[in-house]
Amino acid sequence: AGMRELSPGLKMECDILDALEALGYTGPLLEEKALNKAAENGLSSPEFFELCIWLGSQIKSLCHMEESITSTDGDKDIESFQLEISGFLREMACPYSSLISGDIKGRLREKEDCLKLLLFLSTELQALKILHSKKIKGCRSEKHDEIYQEVQAICSALGLPNSSSCDIPPLLTNVEQKIKDILSKVQNNHVGKSLLTKPLDSDQVERLEKINDALRSEYECRRRMLMKRLDVTVQSFGWSDRAKVKTDDIARIYQPKRYALSPKSTITLAHLLAAREDLSKIIRTSSGSTRENTVCAINKVCFFFLGCDKRTWEFTDLSKVILELYSLCPLCFDPKDSEIS
Question: Which InterPro entries does this one have (predicted)?
Answer without folding.
Answer: FAM98 (IPR018797)
